[in-house]
Structures are given as C-alpha cells and as structure tokens.
Amino acid sequence: MVIKIDFTAVRTINSYGTRRLMGFMREVKPRPIEFHNCPSIFVDTLNIVRDVLGNPRDPSIVKSFAIPLCCLDCQHFFDAMIQTKDVKADQDDMGLAPQVCPKCGGTETERDVDADEHLGFLATD
Predict the structure, then answer these.
(1) Which residues contact 19 (CB under 8 A, 6 or more apart)?
(2) Contact of 88 with 58, CB cutoff 8 Å
(3) How far apart are CA 54 and CA 58, in angstroms?
(4) Element containing residue 24 per DSSP (H, E)
(5) Distances (CA, A) of 85 to 4, 13, 20, 43, 56
(6) What is the per-residue pLDDT across 59-115, written as a single tens digit (0 to 9) for each?
(7) Cystine design at 42: which of 15, 19, 38, 97 (Cβ 3.0–4.6 Å)?
C-alpha cells in the first residue's frame, strides 16, 4: 500500500521538521511513499537535503510541487502547483501549460527560479 503525504498545509519547514520526516520515512520503508502538493519551501528542502527522499535505490516519489512564477502583466508573484509527470526539464518552458495569475487573470508568466536548481530533486543520479 502506498503512503500518500499531502503537503498542502505546509507553509514553513525547519531542521527539526525535516529530521522528523526523515525518521518517519525510515520507519515506514520499504513501503512506497508519494509526496503531493509540495510547496516551494519544501522543494528547497528536497534540493538541499537529498536524503529526505530516501535511498536512491528506493526513493520516494514527488507527484506534484509548486513552482514560483511572476505575472508579467501585474508583477504579482505566486506559486503554481504542477504535476511532476508534466515537467519536461529539457525544454525552456519546462513543458508547462500557461499558468493564470490569481490576481489579474493574466497568462504571461515567467519562472521566478532557475529551472535546473528548482528541479534538482528530480535528478536520478
């Protein structure tokens, strides 16, 4: 049975929370774990502390995560939740569909992060 962890309510994470999550994951392995709705702050943690995803031979799977965007019409910064399966890391736009600004409804947006750095947790090295 897959364990699904939804991070929708997570707004911050500190070293104590990261350590507790890693301990939980060690306890439930080898059961597969899926991470859903990971906010940007958690994506940053995944990129810094690679062990959060577990053993490279038996990693957890990030199913969806936030990417910071800026609306070019109104300069509003916001996070868009995307499905990992839709990401095309080798394309400049990451293969993402246009995102709608929640403030003005504009669809002209650009990433507010470097794609290679933000998507580092997806690397399978």
Answers:
(1) none
(2) no
(3) 7
(4) helix 15-28
(5) 16, 25, 28, 16, 19
(6) 679 999 999 999 999 999 999 999 988 887 666 667 778 899 999 999 999 999 988
(7) 38
